[in-house]
Amino acid sequence: MIVTVTANPSIDRTIALAATLTRGAVLRASGSRREPGGKGINVARAVAAAGDDVCALFPAAADDPLVTELIADGLPHACVPVPTEVRTNLTVTEGDGTTTKINLPGTAWTDTTRAQFTELIVSRASGADWVALCGSLPPGVPEDWYVQLIVGLRGLGCRIAVDTSDAPLCALAASFDTAAPHLLKPNGHELAQLVNAPSAVDADDLETRAAAGDLTPALDAAATLHERSGAAVLATLGAAGALLVTDEGAWFGTPPPIEPRSTVGAGDSSLAGYLLADTHGLPPEQRLALAISYGAAAAALPGTQPPQPTMVNPSEVTITTLTSGAA
């Protein structure tokens, strides 16, 4: 069982442009999509599509449009109520795959909401293989809530993955001595935040240099993060590929060529692929290959659709061993 936690869920509206997005111009869309969103929900949808056991946890009223869509999709889930509708986020994609995203802040939590949601997570975590804590935190939630949650989940037998950014990520980095997860899934920018918290460096250089064949900056950062946290580090580096650093070594993988449609949710699909591979007992190299294959398949789809298993082919991913033994 994989349990995903989405503190700040959304309905994702994607508008596709055939031309370049131009500020201040009148543009015509070539299409649009509306889908359930939020990082943990994206992970859960990909896991469910693969046929594995999953449960998505998030705050929403029972009659919220998001809940209605997930019921129609047949996604197992559980919620705690909030008084207003889940936010709607807007994504604009261009013909070359460039993606612009506008996210609303989300529904503010009360202390009661936070207590109820925490209780729900703890109750569902017991007996789970993985609990994935994903995404931003809505207004009214302390920046260190993930830290508190990780401490509360210890002793339940589950492993914990975290994929977040900005203030919650920096709070986590400051608490690795008491609240380190088992897996961290940063992208290039988040990797920089974690290694340099609280100030982040521009991630473009990490990804650009990796794409040009220079893995040293990204590998050094991921290895440093692994050393500080003790967690496995799955660092996604955009079109360049991804790094995995564990106690067993470090690997880099490059995806097969694709025509990008939307990068939104690609990292979430990568996390889903890794968790799926791990729950099936695959070794690190194959976990990385499946993660990259899932991410590439998602980027080739419009909107935030989860890849179907038939779209995923890890044998097309090139894996390079960078180090063996402790990284």
TrEMBL record:
Pfam families for the chain: PfkB
Is ATP-binding included in the keywords of this UniProt record? Answer: yes
Q: Cellular component GO terms, alphabetically?
A: cytosol
Keyword annotations from UniProtKB, A to Z = ATP-binding, Kinase, Nucleotide-binding, Transferase
Q: What's a Gene Ontology MF term here?
A: ATP binding
Q: Which InterPro entries match?
A: PfkB_dom, Ribokinase-like, Tagatose/fructose_Pkinase
Domain Carbohydrate kinase PfkB intervals: 7-310
> Do you know which PANTHER family this protein is assigned to?
1-PHOSPHOFRUCTOKINASE (PTHR46566:SF5), 1-PHOSPHOFRUCTOKINASE-RELATED (PTHR46566)
Q: Which family does it belong to?
A: Belongs to the carbohydrate kinase PfkB family.
Its protein name is 1-phosphofructokinase
